[in-house]
């Protein structure tokens, strides 16, 4: 994990007293093993959290689930209105209309999914506690289909920081932009649009009418957490709950402005993390006490003290 951090971000991290957003994320991956992170990271279990927090929110229906690819009805491999997923990682998605309806090809791929463990490959601890399962989910459609909007809402301590908005996400032609909680577009982009301006949403892009609903729902879903990304779909102005992300971009998320990355780090008060707020035994308890004192003594480590958390992103 540290090697990947240095290779992608270009400097050695301070892990024991993390200061930046990326250092705090690496610290979370190595040390802050909140049991709830397992539920958040499980694409099936997290649906129940959406339902409890926002009972009015629509969720894609689960049509089948199981742990053996051969048990899935083969009719789903030729159905246009479904998507097949695994619950224990990222990128485990099969769109029947985009692939041959060959059960053998699908089962080989599904077995590879089920044998993949992100806790070992990427250091994302929360995936270690998830029982791998396949599931078939209702596919959300917009009119036209390429107008499906994805909202990835970054929430610190129950307060929306900003939202990365996508069209055609998970394709080679995805477009994105970043907005604050009130729907104002910010002069900052994600790393993809920063390296290719053609991947930014057009300047006249209009947010879906359900954007404010998404901001409210994200704050409710993330209540009680120090940091969580809450994802939604918007189809024809109808909001659907999506997924919860504990480790965005495997902990190495960047954007186009260093000042904005600095603001992300300041917005995240790890004193409210599970490691520093729940009783800990042994070496974890000793380290937690030491770190709390170090953070109190060091204002430069930052913990959400700005009047405008988005200062640096505007």
From TrEMBL:
Xref: Pfam families: ATPgrasp_TupA
InterPro entries with a match to the protein in the record: ATPgrasp_TupA
Entry protein name: ATP-grasp domain-containing protein
Protein source organism: Thioalkalivibrio paradoxus ARh 1
Taxonomic placement: Bacteria, Pseudomonadati, Pseudomonadota, Gammaproteobacteria, Chromatiales
């Amino acid at each position: 994990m540290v090697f990947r951090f240095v290779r992608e971000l270009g400097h050695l991290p301070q892990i024991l007293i993390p200061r930046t957003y990326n250092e705090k994320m690496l610290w979370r991956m190595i040390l802050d093993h909140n049991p709830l992170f397992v539920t958040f990271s499980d694409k099936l279990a997290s649906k129940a959290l959406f339902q409890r927090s926002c009972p009015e929110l629509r969720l894609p229906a689960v049509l089948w689930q199981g742990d053996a690819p051969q048990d899935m009805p083969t009719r789903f491999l030729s159905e246009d209105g479904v998507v097949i997923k695994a619950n224990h990682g990222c990128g485990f998605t099969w769109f029947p209309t985009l692939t041959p309806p060959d059960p053998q090809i699908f089962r080989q791929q599904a077995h590879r999914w089920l044998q993949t463990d992100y806790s070992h490959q990427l250091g994302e601890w929360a995936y270690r506690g998830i029982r791998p399962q396949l599931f078939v989910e209702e596919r959300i459609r917009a009119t036209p289909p390429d107008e499906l909007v994805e909202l990835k809402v970054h929430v610190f301590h129950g307060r929306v920081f900003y939202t990365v908005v996508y069209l055609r996400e998970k394709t080679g032609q995805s477009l994105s932009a970043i907005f604050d909680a009130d729907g104002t577009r910010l002069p900052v982009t994600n790393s993809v649009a920063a390296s290719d301006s053609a991947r930014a949403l057009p300047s006249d892009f209009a947010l879906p009418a359900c954007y404010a609903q998404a901001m409210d729902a994200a704050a409710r879903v993330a209540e009680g957490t120090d940091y969580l990304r809450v994802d939604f779909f918007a189809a024809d102005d109808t909001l659907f709950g999506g997924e919860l992300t504990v480790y965005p971009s495997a902990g190495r998320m960047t954007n186009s402005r260093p000042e904005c990355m600095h603001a992300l780090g300041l917005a995240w008060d790890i004193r409210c993390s599970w490691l520093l707020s729940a009783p800990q035994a042994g070496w974890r308890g000793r380290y937690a006490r030491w770190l709390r004192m170090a953070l109190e003594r060091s204002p430069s480590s930052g913990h959400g003290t700005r009047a405008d958390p988005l200062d640096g992103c505007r």
